[in-house]
Each structure stands twice: as structure tokens, then as C-alpha cells.
Amino acid sequence: MRPTKKVTKASRFEILQKDCLEFLKSLPEESVDIIVTDPAYSGMNNKMNFGNGRIVGEYKKGGNEKWFPEFKDEPETFLYFLKLCHRVLKNNRHLYIMFDSFSLLSLGHIVRDVFDVKNLLVWDKVNFGMGHYFRRRHEFILFATKGYRKLNSKSIPDVWRIKRIPRGIYPTQKPVELFDMMLKASSSPGFLVCDPFVGSGSSSIGALKASCDFIGADISLKACRIAKKRADCFLKTGIDIYQKRSALPEDLKKSLQNKLL
Ligand SMILES: C[S@@+](CC[C@H](N)C(=O)[O-])C[C@H]1O[C@@H](n2cnc3c(N)ncnc32)[C@H](O)[C@@H]1O
After folding, report:
1. Strand 89-99 vs strand 138-146: parallel, antiparallel, or unpaired?
2. Does the Cβ of 173 fall within 6 Å of ligand 1?
3. Most buried pick, 100, 194, 209, 249, via CB within 10 A?
């Protein structure tokens, strides 16, 4: 992949090893401009009994190597998490939270108790993955506002075709293009982007590409190390060492979606 032409050094860039709730509590009220996040839900893993699938959370002891602990996503904890998000987000700003199908059904409705939910976006991963019945090819991104704020463009569809990362450095690594889309739609240069579940740091690369500042956290030291190394290299060279290829499907490379990226 060609290096990103100009990477503006963020005036603030922090990745902290912290629990998401502790992290959000430590931030001042109304201090961030946008929240883009992809939590580690336990719902899906608890309901599925994968055969040969890659087990990523701590729900299954022994046998498989655990990559990271899961966020305990009981409805009460999730509501508390959302209230903390609301507290740190400035007024008239946007929030994007990713959901798999299981967590969307059990937790997605709770977002309405705290934010104004505006859209449920579909991430079409182009190639399908596991599934005992229909094979899964999509996830959801819930888009909501605190107060009123328009999108930067009126031409963005609610289905985003972006290929999954097949063998990433991190098991749940998301393509940076997902965060590019969120930030193109909702950020301005200099915005402080916040991600309480940073993982391999795809959201932080999106923030740097959009000339934004970034503050994020992950409970896993391994994740924080990966994300920091990735951002350091990106700032020095303009190359994303953990996603070297574009995740856009060929037929979309010249399309509207590409022009937005
Ligand atoms: C789905 S992954 C995020 C992947 C990330 N979007 C990427 O592209 O690499 C969720 C992350 O949440 C972290 N996590 C789990 N429980 C957490 C908690 N209580 N507080 C903060 N992070 C947590 C996990 O370590 C994991 O890295």
C-alpha cells in the first residue's frame, strides 16, 4: 500500500491501558468530539459454540489461547457505559458503536435510553465467515447523536461494503476504512476522537488520517502495545504496518464510497 501522503501529527494522541469504565470516568465532562468504538461483547461468544472458530474472549478456559478479556455486557453495565459516554461527549456530537447480531438484539435498544439513535448501519464484509445456519457476512454500526449535528455529507448510504481483515495482527481487527467512513461523515480536523475499546488501533489510524486528535483505551496490555507501535510507525512513515492493503472491494475503488475515503 502507498503511504498516506501527509500525516499531520496530532496535538494529542494517547492510548491507555485501562478498563473502559475507569477510562471514561477519568475524562472530563464534555471533553471529546466523537466516540467510535467496537466493544468486546460476551453475548455472541456465550451463545455460540464454535467448532473450529478462533476463540477470542475469556469465556472458554483452557485449550485455546485467550487474547483478551470480554467486557461484561450485562444490560446494567452497558447502560452505565453509555451514560459515561454521554457524559464525556460534547453536546451536538456523534457516536458510533459496533454490534454483532446477538449483542444488537440484547443491548442495542438500550442506546435509545441515553442517545438519539439515528441509523443502524450495516457493515457488509463482502466475504462470508462462520455460522452454523446462515453464514455471517455483516455486522452493525449504530449511529446516534447527543444533541443536533448534521452529517458532513448527504450522500453516504447505510450499507458499507468493506472487506474483513482475514489474518490481522489482532483477532478482531477491523478495517481502517470503517473508521474512515465514520470520521468522514462526522468529524472535522482537530476533533478529539475517543475509543474506549481500542484493540489493534484501527480507529486511531482513522483519526490520524482525518487530521484528528485521539484518546483511547484497552484493558489488554498486548492490544495497547500493538496499537501504539502501529500509530508510531504511521506517524513516522505514513504506512499502516498492520493493514497494508485497502479493504475496499475492486468494484468500489472508483465509486462514491471511495471518494469519501
Ligand atoms: C472487538 S476488540 C476491538 C478491535 C478494534 N476495533 C480493532 O480494530 O482492532 C475489543 C477490545 O476490547 C478490549 N476490552 C475487553 N474488555 C474491556 C474493558 N472492560 N475495558 C476496555 N477494553 C476492553 C479487548 O481487549 C479488545 O481489544
Report:
1. antiparallel
2. yes
3. 194
